[in-house]
Amino acid sequence: MRTVLFLSMFALASGVPAHAQTPDDSKAILVLDASGSMWGQIGGKSKIAIAREAVGTMLDGWKGGDLGLMAYGHRRKGDCQDIELLIEPGTAGAEAIARKVNALNPVGMTPISAAVRQAAEHLRFTERKATVILVSDGEETCNADPCALGEELERLGIDFSAHVVGFDIAPGSAADEQLRCLAERTGGRYVQARDAGELNQALGQIAGQATATVGAREGADWMVGRALEAETGIYMNPDGQESAGNHDFTVEQTAADCQALCMADAGCAGWHYEPAGSYFVDHPRCQLKGHRFAVRAVVQGEGWVAGIKPGVKLILDEQAAE
Questions:
Q1: How far is CA 113 from the centre of its chain?
Q2: b/e for 184-194, b at 16 or more Cβ within 10 A?
Q3: Which residue from 185, 180, 212, 162 is spatially nearest to 3, judged by alpha carbons?
Q4: Residues of the chain below pLDDT 50
């Protein structure tokens, strides 16, 4: 089943923006639970064996760019520091990742928070889009709060998501609440899986969301009845200017004058004109938008006009890869 995410927003950038990532330049890390509880059995088969097969199936259909692998609890008992990045994103193909997964020997603790944090930091989540896919069969056992971590990563990250598969987790349990909260606080997806079939399905759904790609196309240079609203959670150019400046106009100045100001300013990527009376102001205003943040084109009504410089990418459509 095709999982489709549609994000229609208006963005400012020259060329392909920072978050208009293709499958070739997106990065994600699969974090796999290899704690001792993964030796538990479902239908006469160990959970780690089921997970190995499910990950293998996911990798066969992976279309989402560079994927790395991290595991925890696979080397030492009772050690909350037992977290290892086994494969750097972009350095190995599906077969190599599958071999590493097949070699895991569950023995230890469940440091969910520390592992997800390390994965996010390795992906430089404060600088660019970062995706973590976590598969866990239990709750945090290392004195940390995955829910609080989710809040922190969402607050500090540019475009961070943790998609989580709770494997053999009892609904309503502490583990269920922790894992669900981690995913939801980061805008990710939480899926429960009770057996081999459901784990295969869950990882397929998560992979569909994690491999989402973004394409951009140019917008119009004259949009009647619209304003541009900054989408500060999405950086089009982190080093770019947030705003090229806002100007109070006289009643004689028009939307064409606002457009001319933007065209004359190299730091301006788009603009909108507010007519007199908007927001209870008795004069028109001209707002110039820079290249830093994506923007939404918001319907405002009569007298408003917005525009994007020719050649600047505007509308972004995000959807899962086939």
A1: 18
A2: bbbebbbbbbe
A3: 212
A4: 1-24, 212-216, 314-322
- Note the pTM of the prediction, 2 decimals: 0.62
Domain interval for residue 160: 24-210
Task: Dump pLDDT digits (tens) for 181-197.
Answer: 999 898 888 989 998 99
Q: What is the spatial distance between Cα 115 and Cα 44, in angstroms, rounded to a whole number?
A: 29
Residue 164's closest CA among 196, 148, 144, 186?
186
The answer to whether residue 122 sits within a structural domain is yes
Q: In terms of Cα–Cα distance, which of 205, 202, 35 is closest to 114?
A: 35
Residue 183 and residue 136 in contact, taking contact as beta carbons nearer than 8 Å:
no
Domain stops at, among 210, 232, 258: 210
Distance CA 309, CA 300 (A): 20
Both structure tokens of 264? 């004359």
**SS3 state at 157:** coil
Contacts of 276 (CB under 8 A, 6+ apart): 251, 282, 283, 284, 303
**Which residue reads 């540019």 in tokens?**
158
Domain-terminating residue out of 165, 195, 210: 210
